[in-house]
Every structure is written in structure tokens, then in C-alpha cells.
Design brief:
Layout: H1 8-18, E1 27-29, H2 40-48, E2 56-60, H3 70-73, E3 78-84, H4 91-104, E4 107-113, E5 115-118, H5 128-136, H6 139-142, E6 148-150, E7 153-155, H7 158-166, E8 175-176, H8 184-191, E9 210-212, E10 229-231
Parallel strand pairs: 1-2, 2-3, 3-4
Antiparallel strand pairs: 5-9, 5-10, 6-7, 7-8
């Protein structure tokens, strides 16, 4: 997939347009790796001023922290730092996060993730009952409520945005927050749906197999890679 950075000005406009329709407890910046964004300060500011949420969280592996200026942190409320087995932060960088958190009054959470979980398959499931069981048991959509906003479209989860991009035959399903005809009830109905999305045929939800974290190379990333995963 091509490298892509969200445009801060466009994001600001989309969030402001959406603020009359949705309100959430925490607005998370994930990725990819958010600290690699060249205009991260503007992105964070757009989120903080959006009116959608009063709480902005950045989720990061922390490796690029040394290159981030103080302008980024002034609009951040919380930072989650994920430590992976073969790419752990040095104690020096963890201490830098502690200092940043203290100086900017940011809540800091540092957690180790030695294992990942397989989250989807190239081959769709033909078993409708199995797909429904995986969907109903999915922590991502139902308990963690990882709703995802991209290009003004609200998705039930990150996987339902990502899977159609790499599996073109999969239907993209979301709700446009920029469409003047969209109502709050339509959004509530979509987010509380009790039937699987088309992407769920490929998705393992939160029931996939666990495997140890390993480092790879750019050449191996993609559908030749043995695992398509998320940290747990």
C-alpha cells in the first residue's frame, strides 16, 4: 500500500462538520505510527479543537519520540506507548516520555505486547454462522468500540476500513458524516448493528491465533507476509 498522511486542514474541516452528529469519550490517533506524521502538531490541534471529543490520545511505539517538538504535546491528554519484544524502547526514551508527560500534564501508559493476534485472512469464510459468531464476539467493535473515521466516513472498526483496500472485492461499509442527509439515528443504528459487515468474512476479530512479535522488512510486508495482525 502507498504511504499516506492525513491532511491536517482537511481533517480539521471534516471533524468540525461531523461535530453536530457525533460525540465520543476519547479521540485516538493510531496509525501506522502517528509520530511519523510530518504535520502531527496540526493534526493533534485539529482533533483537540474538533468539538467531537475533549480527550485526545496518541498511541505509539515511541521510537520516533526524539524528533517530536513540544507543540505536539500541548494538545494531547494521554499517550499509550506500546513496547514490542524485538523493538523495545530504550530506558532513555521511556524516561523522555515520563518527562514529557510530567511537563505537559499528560497521562502516560507504557505497556508491553510480546504477542500479536492474527486479525484477518486473505480467503473469505463461506460459513455464515462462523462469521456471525466471530462478529458477535468481536471485542474491537462491541466492547472496545474502536470506531474509525477516515475521509469523512465513520467505520465500525479499523479492519472494516482496511480490508476492502487490500481485498477490492469486499464491500466498503460506513456512514458519511459529511452527507447532510445523515442523521444521528442512522449513526446509532449503524454502530449498534447486530449483523456482520461484508469485511467480517475475512476478519478474525479478536478470536485470531496468537504469535510472538518478530521484526520484518519492507520487502516482506503485504500479502506474502504470514501474519496480518494486531498487538494484544
Amino acid at each position: 500500500m502507498d504511504k499516506h498522511f492525513v491532511d491536517a486542514e482537511k481533517l480539521s474541516h471534516e471533524l468540525e462538520q461531523s461535530s453536530d452528529l457525533i460525540s465520543i469519550g476519547t479521540l485516538c490517533l493510531i496509525g501506522g505510527e502517528p509520530l511519523l506524521h510530518p504535520d502531527l502538531a496540526d493534526v493533534v490541534e485539529a482533533c483537540a479543537n474538533s468539538g467531537i471529543s475533549k480527550h485526545v490520545r496518541v498511541v505509539t511505539n515511541g521510537l520516533p519520540v526524539s524528533r517530536i517538538t513540544g507543540d505536539v504535546w500541548k494538545n494531547v491528554d494521554e499517550v499509550y506507548v506500546s513496547l514490542y519484544g524485538q523493538a523495545k524502547l530504550s530506558e532513555e526514551k521511556i524516561q523522555l516520555f515520563r518527562e514529557i508527560a510530567e511537563e505537559n500534564q499528560i497521562a502516560l501508559r507504557v505497556a508491553s505486547y510480546p504477542q500479536f493476534r492474527e486479525t484477518f485472512s486473505q480467503n473469505p469464510s463461506a460459513d455464515e454462522a462462523l462469521t456471525e459468531r466471530v462478529f458477535k464476539a468481536c471485542e474491537v467493535a462491541h466492547n472496545w468500540k474502536c470506531y474509525t473515521l477516515d475521509e469523512g466516513i465513520l467505520y465500525l472498526c479499523p479492519q472494516s476500513l482496511f480490508i476492502p483496500r487490500v481485498q477490492p472485492e469486499v464491500k466498503t461499509e460506513g456512514v458519511s458524516l459529511l452527507d447532510p442527509k445523515t442523521t444521528p439515528q442512522q449513526i446509532r443504528d449503524f454502530l449498534s448493528r447486530d449483523t456482520p459487515l461484508d469485511a467480517c468474512k475475512h476478519c478474525l476479530g479478536s478470536a485470531g491465533s496468537l504469535f510472538s512479535h518478530t521484526l520484518t522488512t519492507i520487502e516482506k510486508i503485504g500479502f506474502n507476509c504470514p501474519h496480518h495482525s494486531t498487538a494484544i
